[in-house]
Specification:
The structure is a single chain. The radius of gyration is 24 Å and the shape is elongated. The protein has eleven helices and ten strands. It folds into two domains: 162 residues, Regulatory protein AraC (Jelly Rolls, Sandwich); 105 residues, Arc Repressor Mutant, subunit A (Orthogonal Bundle). The chain has 296 residues and is of the alpha+beta class. Helices cover 49% and strands 20% of the residues.
Length: 296
């Protein structure tokens, strides 16, 4: 059973996790307890279980109470303080990784709008408890995975709650969210038969509007992005001698090897086989130079 005051610090041993927990905890703050103004180099969410306090950014001051929370963004000056008469009890979760910004955007949070409401105190407490329990598995091979799973559950609760409360904002200030989801969808589905119509339906947008929105942000259409993403992935796979050209083509969503070879040559000026041989020659040259260097 966890008390009102505890904290964990847990740095993942894996460098491949794109979303990892840094530290978390729960505290019953004394009156006036404060932090900052200062900045952090990672994301940190505070969720208020009871009491109240003030959260300040450069441009705004928020008075917050139970069922609310705030997100501190990396490299952004902020501060917070517990109320003198009714100090808050809160939990905090600090995290970082390649997917951290995507998670924040999907929760409709931003530097300009870092505050949220989530009336699921029991669920939040359960997620924090899972983080604590996972942190105690010092010698378990599953420790990093369990920590990440608990973090993802915590973020999912906030995403779902905040999204249902501010659904109307998706169409006013959520363009970056749509772009992030298009990028994520492509990265997940590029190896399958990926139709732009399906992507538009997934987002609840018309194909024309989605294409316009994406091109404005990225500079190319979704079709062009998918095309480039697939061929760049193919270049990576061609460096693996164990894969045939046909297997590479299938792995990046081309079921027609001839079409794949034609598109590859049109883009890079050489066939997949020529590209592979060229890469092998570069590696042989590099090895030769290394061997020559060791003779000196």
């Amino acid at each position: 059973m966890l008390g009102n005051d505890y904290k964990i610090s847990t740095y993942s041993n894996s460098s491949n996790i794109d979303l990892k927990l840094f530290y978390s905890g729960t505290q019953q703050c004394p009156p006036g307890h404060s932090w900052g103004p200062a900045l952090k180099d990672h994301y940190k969410i505070h969720y208020i279980h009871s009491g109240k306090g003030i959260f300040r950014t450069i441009n705004q001051t928020y008075t917050l109470s139970s069922g609310q929370g705030f997100l501190i963004y990396p490299d952004q000056i902020s501060s917070y303080a517990a109320d003198e008469a009714d100090p808050w009890t809160y939990s905090w979760v600090a995290f970082q990784g390649a997917s951290a910004e995507y998670c924040a955007a999907n929760a409709i949070l931003s530097v300009e709008q870092p505050v949220f409401t989530c009336e699921q105190d029991d669920v939040i407490r359960s997620c924090i408890r899972q983080m604590y329990e996972a942190s105690q598995l010092i010698h378990a091979s599953s420790r990093d995975l369990r920590l990440t799973a608990a973090l993802c559950s915590f973020l999912a609760v906030i995403m779902d709650s905040v999204g249902s409360n501010v659904q109307f904002k998706r169409f006013d200030s959520g363009k970056d969210v749509y772009v992030s989801r298009i990028l994520a969808y492509t990265e997940t589905n590029y190896s399958r038969s990926l139709r732009i119509e399906d992507l538009a339906n997934e987002l609840g947008l018309t194909r024309k509007y989605m294409s316009s929105l994406f091109k404005e942000a990225v500079g190319i259409s979704p079709q062009q992005y998918v095309f480039q993403y697939r061929l760049n992935k193919a270049r990576e796979l061609l460096k693996k001698a164990s894969l045939s050209i046909r297997e590479v083509a299938y792995s990046v969503g081309y079921h027609d090897q001839l079409l794949f070879s034609r598109m590859f040559k049109k883009t890079f000026g050489m066939s997949p086989s020529e590209y592979r041989n060229n890469e092998y020659d570069k590696m042989d040259l590099l090895k030769g130079n290394t061997h020559e260097g060791t003779r000196e």
